[in-house]
Amino acid sequence: MTELIYEQPLNEKIRSYLRIENLALQLQQHAEQDNQHQCFSPLFALAELTERCDYRTDILKDIEKQIQIISHWRTHSNVDNAQVDQLTQKLIALKSPLQAQERIGCSLKQDKFISALRQRFNMTGAYCNFDFPQLHFWLGKDWQHRQQDIKSWLIQYQPLLAPIALLLELIRTTADFGLYQAPVGFYQGNSVQPLSLIRVQINSNQNCYPTVSGNRNRYAIHFVDFDLHRHTSETVQFSLATCT
Description:
The protein contains nine helices and eight strands. By secondary structure, it is of the alpha+beta class. Helix 3 (56-72) packs antiparallel against helix 4 (81-98), helix 3 packs across helix 9 and helix 4 (81-98) packs antiparallel against helix 9 (158-172).
């Protein structure tokens, strides 16, 4: 069976980062293989998220925070200074595209083809050619042409997607997985340091999944039996990483 990792954000900012990361991964997959019209759902969801909130200020603050944290690594005797320099320069390079005056994704909003699709894309069963003749025409183009279009749409969000991907990678590396047990499917923990992300790894052969609740200092994990749709009474073996 498969080892699955479940992630639970403990604040709204990380929740948004994870949603954007998930949409970016879906779009990247659609840019690598021909899935017909399926690329538009994550594209329009990403557009809606970025229009609803401008994440640039939060991301720039987080980049500065990570640069400060990384600079403290130099105080350790066994640190690889070349790697520290490389990571610092990568973070600094991600700041410039975020500081542009133009709102991220605004060029896509002005695209007449995308705008026409987006207005009616959530209609029930709306993939018929009489609903979207322009989509039918686009799908009739060869895959190489459509692939280039998807990549061009995706690249408009790269100033946002690239730093979020790196920031989440750094957050995930703040804690290693440790082995734990949850008697009668329940585990509770706390942390002196403020937490931002809970990661639970569990083998699917235990036939349950975790539901996590909590805040930056306290959290609880309930394991739910997938078939019975209720809290399991079994002792569950799992791995846990609490990321700051």
